[in-house]
Amino acid sequence: MIDLSNYKAIIFDMDGTLVDSMGAHIDAWQLTCSAFNYPFDRAYQHSLGGVPTIETVQLMNAKYGKKHNPSEVAIYKKQAFERLEHIPNLIQDTLEVFNHYKASMPIAVGTGSDKQHAQSVLDKHGLLSQLSALVTSDDVANGKPHPETFVRAAELMGVDPQFCVVFEDTEMGRKAALDGGMSCFMVENNRLVY
Length: 194
Description:
Blueprint: E1 9-12, E2 19-20, H1 22-36, H2 42-47, H3 53-64, H4 70-83, E3 89-90, H5 92-101, E4 107-110, H6 115-124, E5 133-135, H7 148-157, E6 164-168, H8 171-179, E7 183-188, E8 191-193
Parallel strand pairs: 1-4, 1-6, 4-5, 6-7
Antiparallel strand pairs: 2-3, 7-8
């Protein structure tokens, strides 16, 4: 088990870190790209994991020279994801960390997903009630890679950022953690890398 005794709180990203849902999100982006005539690049979409959907659309508009309404594209993507009827599994490596430390320190989730989706996924797996804090795209003005998501989670737990450790699966999320003054461990291909 990873030694987190130097920390006072843990913050998990959700999609791709605690919950194995990135594949379904990327499949929904593929449908969305097709509908709005964006080129689809699986690796690029994965690199944007954790970035709120509206901001992802803004980045895609800039990258591909499009002028689609971000809200319209975001709604389509959300509906595409919901049509997939995908109930993601938990990622065992991070679930073990969660279960090992939940009795000894506060745990939060900081996600680019909206509140309704995050609460639904976490509740299905019995995790929502075990959290000290949940910060979603609905709770912040600036999504990842801005550190606001993680800094807000630290505030809600009453722990200084320097004593928080973040678990993430994307470079955008890692940047948000580090810029927020926190340590970060990465999850790659559903495995914890330390």
